[in-house]
């Protein structure tokens, strides 16, 4: 098997990838993550996932490089990481009682052959009706400022959900393992 490289500094993605019990290393790519004019949310996450993988190909020859990117979509608006308490409160108030779709772009690049598999895995969260007090209690307890949509599904964020739907719950956290396993199998990687 070619060495496996996760093109990310995300602890959430590292924890997910560790579930597959495959040896891997991490390196954080330096790319421009700006949204292009006219680009759909799906096209954005697929492009960024592939760019992250390709950005490391020159320094990691003969590797299987995993790139991933995620955005949350509320209505027709992309909502990213809030970075601040105020933006997080704003995002969660807007999401109250609504459905938020998380789109996770995934790329697996074989830097030896140049073959790249790219996909997008959606996952929808139907939010409870939330009041300002509930939201503020949650934000003080969890501080989810580095998470798209302002919540950590692997933590207290689940208390904000009414229900969820999608093909792979791990995509909500940022790395769709079911689809990744398909891609790895296509590259001849045995799991387990």
Automatic annotation (TrEMBL):
Alphabetically ordered keywords of this record: Cytoplasm, Hydrolase, Nucleotide metabolism
InterPro entries in UniProt: ITPase-like_fam, Maf-like
Co-factor requirement: a divalent metal cation
Protein name, entry field: 7-methyl-GTP pyrophosphatase
Site residues, Important for substrate specificity: 12, 70, 154
Organism of this sequence: Pseudomonas reinekei
SUPFAM superfamilies: ITPase-like
Active site: 69
Catalysed reactions listed for this entry: N(7)-methyl-GTP + H2O = N(7)-methyl-GMP + diphosphate + H(+)
Known EC number: 3.6.1.-
Top-rank taxon, per record: Bacteria
Pfam family, one: Maf
Record localization: Cytoplasm
GO MF annotations in UniProt: nucleoside triphosphate diphosphatase activity
Described purpose of this protein according to its UniProt entry: Nucleoside triphosphate pyrophosphatase that hydrolyzes 7-methyl-GTP (m(7)GTP). May have a dual role in cell division arrest and in preventing the incorporation of modified nucleotides into cellular nucleic acids.
Recorded GO CC terms: cytoplasm
Enzyme kind, highest EC tier: hydrolase
Gene3D superfamilies: 3.90.950.10
BP terms from Gene Ontology: nucleotide metabolic process
Family: Belongs to the Maf family. YceF subfamily.
């Amino acid at each position: 098997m070619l060495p496996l490289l996760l093109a990310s500094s995300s602890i959430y993605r590292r924890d997910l990838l560790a579930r597959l019990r495959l040896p891997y290393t991490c390196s954080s790519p330096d790319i421009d993550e700006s949204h292009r004019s006219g680009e759909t949310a799906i096209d954005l996450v697929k492009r960024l996932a592939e760019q992250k993988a390709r950005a490391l190909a020159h320094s990691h020859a003969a590797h299987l490089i995993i790139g991933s990117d995620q955005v949350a979509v509320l209505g027709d608006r992309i909502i990213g990481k809030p970075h601040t308490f105020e933006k997080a409160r704003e995002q969660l108030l807007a999401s109250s009682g609504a459905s938020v779709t998380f789109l996770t772009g995934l790329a697996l690049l074989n830097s030896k052959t140049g073959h790249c598999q790219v996909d997008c895995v959606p996952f929808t969260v139907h939010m409870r009706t939330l009041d300002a007090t509930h939201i503020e209690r949650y934000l003080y307890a969890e501080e989810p400022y580095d998470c798209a949509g302002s919540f950590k599904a692997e933590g207290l964020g689940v208390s904000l959900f009414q229900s969820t739907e999608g093909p792979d719950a791990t995509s909500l956290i940022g790395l769709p393992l079911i689809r990744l396993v398909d891609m790895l199998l296509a590259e001849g990687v045995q799991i387990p």
